[in-house]
Amino acid sequence: MSPVAASCTRNTQAGAGLRAFFQSRGPLALPQRAGMSSSAALTTALALGVNVLFDLKLQLPQLAQVDWGEYYLGKKAGAADKTAQLFARNGELVVVGSFPEEFIRTVALPESIVVFMANTNIPRLSAAEAVPWLQTKLGITTEAASEIKAWAKTTMQLAYTPAVEAILSGLRDHCVLERAGLEPEDAEAAANALLKGTQPLLRDLLIVGHSDFHASAKDRAAAHRLVYRLLKLIPQEQMTLRQVALYGLSETERGLRYVSAVERGDAREVLRLVCAAHDGDRALRDYRSRLAPTTWADERDDVAPTDDAIDIWLKRNDDLAYKAGAFQRSIPDIDEAASALFADFAGDAALRVAAAGMGGTVAVHALVQRAAEVREWLERRGWSVRRLEPAYPARVVQLLPH
Predict the structure, then answer these.
(1) Alpha carbon distance 382, 80 (integer Å)
(2) Beta-carbon neighbour count of residue 131 at 10 Å?
(3) In 3D, which of 42, 79, 38 has the Cα closest to residue 62?
(4) Of 3, 17, 210, 221, which is most buried with the most CB atoms under 10 A?
(5) Tens digits of per-residue pLDDT, 93-127?
(6) 384-387 and 113-119 as β-strands: parallel, antiparallel, unpaired?
(7) From CA 113, how far away is CA 72, in angstroms rounded?
């Protein structure tokens, strides 16, 4: 054991704590509260340091599960961000699974694509710092700004669980199954897929290897048709649940297709998927106009999917990956930028809101030959832009003298 580690051990045994110092002025300089996983980076660095300092010999999967820092700070972010950071490889993207959160593999980022993270410098509307920002931006009272903050927090609490429960309830009702056009064997397979794990997950309807339901479909188009019929099990009167379920299912399909497109080097498909992903997050309320409805739900039939709309999708064999649904993690400022970017660059660049959303950071994909133009376009909006270079985490921990 090193002298420093021995000293720390004696102090810990004597009831003293371990004091760690961090700075964000290094090569990454991650901003706080901007969707850049800075909190996970902080505690990952702490875990790496403690692992080296005390020679704990923890392996990467164990380090990824170390949530001491987050829980101490009242956070429950889980292991996904840590897993991506710890398993990163130079020039590659990390594919991370969920439930359980685990490393799957890495894929090389095609040289034809560049990725930027852009901090919009808009605070997350659900955060405390949003209140004074809203007061200044909109010229409103503290009470009015606090109401917007409360709305944003409520919107961010939209969850998949009630939507899954609504689907399971429909699967038990023969009349509902008949109206949805689901055959008994398909309904049984769907129920088995949802109930085979420790908790019912929408993704198990689409992930190969997780789902008997998917195995019952001869191809992806057939799987998509079965998914559309499942959506009809959720009553139209519970449209919010339908919107969330459609987003969850289409986002799962997009995730699978994104990895496949990256592996093939299909830059155009990657950009289209990024654009479609943001469409699912677009705002349905405008905080700038007393939370009046936006026009987004009126522009397409896949934002608030009615039975009639779903019937049309079934006839056309529509692609699930490009259906929006509504998870509402974005805000109109970012939505307007997303539309303008895709149009101004004729599909050569696309953005989506990042992390928890409601402000903060956006992830931008662009063709490499347009990178300089895209960066300039983003910076003209007053955004702080960083080009991402897929890399690996630092392995060296500096031990400072007393």
Answers:
(1) 30
(2) 19
(3) 79
(4) 210
(5) 899 887 777 888 999 999 999 999 999 999 999 99
(6) antiparallel
(7) 38
